[in-house]
Amino acid sequence: MSGTAAGTRPTGADPLAAALRPVRSGNTFEETVQRVLQLIRLGLVPEGERLPPERELAERLQVSRVTLRDALKVLQDAGLLEIRRGRYGGAFVLPARQDTPSGDGAELRRRAELLGDRLEDTLLFREVLEVGAAELCAARETAGEEEERLRECLAATASAGLADYRRQDTRLHLAIAELSGSVSVAAQYAAVRSTVNELLDCIPLLPPNLEHSERQHTELVAAILGGEPERARAVMRQHLAGTAALLRGFLA
Asked: What positions does the domain HTH gntR-type occupy (predicted)?
């Protein structure tokens, strides 16, 4: 891109356009991670080269610079980027690390390859099950011991450390499936969540993502206990889209 002023794009074909689409959903952090990962995984920014300037990335993704910095930091922690400060600084793509499969996504890709075409089917099936379960749960009267169970599961995810977070997250989602009133939905959810957890275990737990998830969990439980089926559907769909975005990002 020599000869192009910093923060601007060439007038011809833009090789980065496919990955740097504006982030549209409510899962801003997760989709930002996904977009930057696509730049790296697709080789649009080669190893050793610098990503576009922070200001340009934020403008093209239409996210705040705070969100972008959070995304770049977790990718630095995962061993994919090196953040350099100073006049000639920026975010530089590091060579792929063979010794850290959870950081570079190698194990995730291996497991995804074993799933083959069933990966997207698994994510879609999970969405259908969980969005439907959230709606059914909100349409029922959830009170007494059932309400107490939901609140206890929500509190457990909020207070969980990184080592225990995924287990507590699974407990909350399984509780919603079970409280939908359908034994079959709960059984199918348990099976699909097992597959999803195998994939999630291959990528790092990202604190900004967990904080965002907790806000969504709180809103989801409030919609269920408030008897708002449509709101529960919408929150659950957006929540699952964030997880799917991270998985697709690390797989790209």
From this structure: 26-96
Among all chains, which residue has been given the structure tokens 């980027």? 81
Are 35 and 61 within 8 A, CB to CB? Answer: yes
| Residue with tokens 């990503």, as numbered in its chain | 51
Give buried/exposed letters for 112-151 (b at 16+ CB in 10 A, else e). beeeeeebeebbebbbebbbbbbbbbbbeebeeebeebbe
- Over residues 174-186, the pLDDT tens digits come to 899 999 999 899 8
Look at residues 198, 200, 190 and name the one whose alpha carbon lies nearest to residue 246.
200
The CATH number of residue 83's host domain is: 1.10.10.10
Its pTM stands at: 0.72
Range of the domain at 74: 28-96
Please, which residues bridge with residue 93 across strands? 81
Q: Which two tokens stand for residue 224?
A: 């269920």
